[in-house]
Design goal:
The protein has six helices and two strands. By secondary structure, the chain is mainly alpha-helical.
C-alpha cells in the first residue's frame, strides 16, 4: 500500500490525485466525482483514463501510475494493487 500511495503522491497532478482517490479508494462513480468537484463526467474520465489522440491514449492518472509502476519495484506494487482491487470489489 505505501508504494501505491507514494506513486499517487508523486506521479499525479493534484486534480488527478483527487479524482483517483475518490474513484478507487472511496468507491465514488465518475458522476459522483463530477458533482463533488464541479466538473463534467467526461472531464473526470479524462483525468482518470486520459483521451485518445491520433490513435494513441495520452494522459490520465491510470496510465501515469502504470508507467511509474513498471519502472519501480514490480512485486510489492503488484501485491498492493491486488489488495486494492480486492477492497474495491468488496466495496461494490
Amino acid at each position: 500500500m505505501p508504494v501505491v500511495g507514494d506513486a499517487i503522491d508523486t506521479a499525479l497532478t493534484s486534480r488527478q490525485r483527487e479524482v483517483t482517490l475518490l474513484y478507487f479508494f472511496c468507491g465514488k462513480t465518475q458522476e459522483d466525482i463530477a458533482a463533488i468537484l464541479d466538473l463534467s463526467q467526461s472531464t473526470v474520465s479524462r483525468h482518470l483514463f486520459g483521451t485518445t489522440r491520433n490513435g494513441r491514449r495520452v494522459g490520465g492518472a491510470v496510465q501515469k501510475l502504470r508507467k511509474m509502476i513498471e519502472r519501480t519495484q514490480p512485486e510489492p506494487v503488484q501485491e498492493a494493487l491486488q489488495v486494492l482491487q480486492q477492497r474495491f470489489q468488496r466495496a461494490i
